[in-house]
Amino acid sequence: MYGFRKPYTAGSYVDDGYGHLDYKSLLILAQTLGYVCSKWLGIKFISEVKPGQRVKALISLVLLSEVALLLFGVVDRPWNIFFLFLNGLALGLVFGFVLGYLEGRKHTEALIAILCASFIVSDGVAKSVGNWLILEGVTERWMPFVSGLVFLLPFLFFSWMLAAVPPPSEKDRIERKQRLPMNRRSRWEYFKKYAFGLSAIMVSYLFVTILRSVRADFAPEIWKGLGFTQRPAIFTQSELFVSIGVIIISGTVIFLRSHFKALITAILTCIIGFLILLGSVWGLDRGLDPFSFMVLTGLGVYIPYVSIHTAVFERMVSLTNERANIGFLMYVADSIGYTGYIVLMIYKYFGSQPGNMLGQYTKWSYILGFGGLVFLVAVLIYFSNKFRKYEAAQ
After folding, report:
1. Contact between 197 and 383 (Cβ < 8 Å)
2. What residues does each domain of the chain span?
3. What confidence score (pLDDT) does residue 230 get?
4. Which residues contact 173 (CB under 8 A, 6 or more apart)?
5. Distance CA 329, CA 190 (A)
6. pLDDT score of 357
7. Domain formed by 2-388, architecture
8. What pLDDT was estimated at residue 202?
9. Are 331 and 43 spatial neighbours (Cβ–Cβ below 8 Å)?
10. CA distances for 368 relative to 92, 205, 332, angstroms
11. In the predicted model, is pLDDT for residue 349 greater than 80?
12. Contact assessment for residue 1 and residue 91, using Cβ atoms and an 8 Å cutoff
């Protein structure tokens, strides 16, 4: 999926600009806006989808995204920006459909950690492929569509394999509770019951989504600020180290059988992630080498991002017998997170003074890193008190 979403960010798309915005910034805003709309729609569609509908939906959405990239190449600037919006609108639901195959299993945390690590690496690989195609002579206008063709057959093959995955076993359903589709009433009832803790998690997730998105969408500009240019492999190399660290840290929660202990451990892991983020930015000002900085900031944002995907929501649902699924919780979090990113991008282009992307990224890391720590401590206290009664029952 990332082969259809991210390769365009490897291009510079030099242009005279349109008002306050340069062309590439308009592209990022358009695709992210489509992604945001998709996430809000996904709160309903992902939480209600039936297992037999997932693969057909996956294939249809990705093919639609590739058609949008074809039209992006056909239509002249700046009108082709609309088709990148459609690309984002189609791809925003993909993760939720895949997630449905993995939740409610004995090894869910490890499976989702690997899934999340795959899109950490995929982000870098997609940029490397996009950069490589440009160096091979493919124009920036057609590079996104050609990149999609590169990934199309592997996507179809692995979608077929995914369709063959068996549902959770009876033992899984006993240990992790059966995951059922949620209607509007069950969604509201579940959220209201844990409103304070979920709201604090959403704010923390908002902060980390903003930082992750800035780091991903403006990676070439950040690397350039650090002194790296014209090295396509650098995107993949840094994200490979990040993904290995995330798998090790997030996936090991499966060894905690107690859902309560696993939940608390996952929240503490998120706190550690924010501390790594703040430490890496502080270290850059004091001589930390650029490659280590990018790896550590990647760990700092992806550890809480993935831990919330994996253990926090998974163990919350497993703790009680209430009708819920993590697809619903993830799409509430994602919709808030990407909406925040859109707001930040609009502020960046219309309300703030221009500056280098590296400097802005480090400034936002300090502000949002400290804010995330505060909210996560509140989450830790809330859920420690809210769910302690379930520990003895396990």
Report:
1. yes
2. 2-388
3. 56
4. 104
5. 10
6. 81
7. Up-down Bundle (1.20)
8. 94
9. yes
10. 24, 10, 20
11. no
12. yes
